[in-house]
Amino acid sequence: MFSGAVIYDSPTAAIARKAGEPLVIEEIEVAPPKASEVLIKILCTSLCHSDVTFWKMAAGPLSFFPRIFGHEAAGVVESVGENVEEVKAGDLVLPIFQSNCGECRDCKSKKSNACSKFPVRFYGGMPIDGSSRFTDMNGQILHHFFSVSSFSEYTVVDMSHVVKISLEIPVDKACLLSCGVTTGVGAACKFAQVEEGSTVAILGLGAVGLAVAEGARICRASRIIGVDLNPEKFEIGKQFGITDFINPTTCGEKSISQVIEEMTDGGADYCFECIGLASLMADAFNSSRQGGKTVVLGVEMHGSPLSISPYEILRGRTITGCLFGGLKPKSDISSFAQMYLDHELNLNGFITHELNFKDINRAFDLLLQGKSLRCIIWMDNIENGK
């Protein structure tokens, strides 16, 4: 059990000093875990669009700098604080942004994956009190991100955000289960419960959107329509089950919803919005059939209101949203890992690049250029990045 001062050499972290500026790799100090906390040695991490969104955010109540980003990772437990019995040193774990205490009313409910004991209150620190476990070598506090901060060789995470996972799964594939892929697959398989033979439309074919397609494929949807401005996404999407593709720029005077309605004889059974734009959320809703269901996965960061017709709601169309695919991390992630081990879930296709930690800024460039789905960033050097 960990107590007192840190007993290992000063680890390094990729620090965002200012919004939108390249990350700087520096030595830092990591405080030991307190009660109900876990010290994790990060083995690999990856870059998610949410990291980029907040990295660009120069002002506002959610903007904290200097900061250690990263929230999609796999690592090994180095040590634990008091009252931690769920994991021990040497266990392979995933730090997860979605809390799951397992004790509160919401965690025990089957209706959602919310956690009322640890609701999102502190965007720049630990979930209990907002304090930080990171300082730079000058003693300056470094802020956390999404209760994970995986762009660091070591991080401290509250046990409510830690999931133990089987050692059988390769760590780079396990890493993908800590955010984006699980969000998309879970949204289709568990939250929406897509039925065999149904039609599915997905607006936005980033990693989350393609993961929705993968989930719909697993559920044996008969038709999976992908909508994206990048024509290359059709070929990429085929390996995840995309059967049809719409590029909005080639629709002429027709709206996305009109095209989908014509393709599906009245609209899709399930529509998923995976970008985070209110206008696309409305398009997704309007693309669904009578009695159809629209699921919003994208986070609207512009403050734009969503406008939909109350009459269409009366006709049976529904629209709802979910975080982390509606999954409860501690009970659901293990089943996804087993699906991968049983060759039912395609994780390999999401990994487009692998880089050394020192090259982390290149991962940002690749994502911003639309060239990567998931870039695995190895904390220990790999021979050749790809």
TrEMBL record:
Keyword NAD: yes
Superkingdom of this protein's organism: Eukaryota
Domain Alcohol dehydrogenase-like N-terminal residues, every copy: 35-165
Name of the protein in its database record: Alcohol dehydrogenase
Organism whose genome encodes this protein: Cinchona calisaya
Family: Belongs to the zinc-containing alcohol dehydrogenase family. Class-III subfamily.
The protein's assembly and partners: Homodimer.
Statement: the UniProt record of this protein carries the keyword Membrane: no
A matching Pfam family: ADH_zinc_N
Alcohol dehydrogenase-like C-terminal domain ranges (all copies): 207-334
Gene3D superfamilies membership: Medium-chain alcohol dehydrogenases, catalytic domain, NAD(P)-binding Rossmann-like Domain
InterPro entries cross-referenced by the UniProt entry: ADH-like_C (IPR013149), ADH-like_N (IPR013154), ADH_Zn_CS (IPR002328), GroES-like_sf (IPR011032), NAD(P)-bd_dom_sf (IPR036291)
Coiled coil: none
Keywords assigned: Metal-binding, NAD, Oxidoreductase, Zinc
A single GO molecular function term of this UniProt record: oxidoreductase activity
Cofactor entry: Zn(2+)
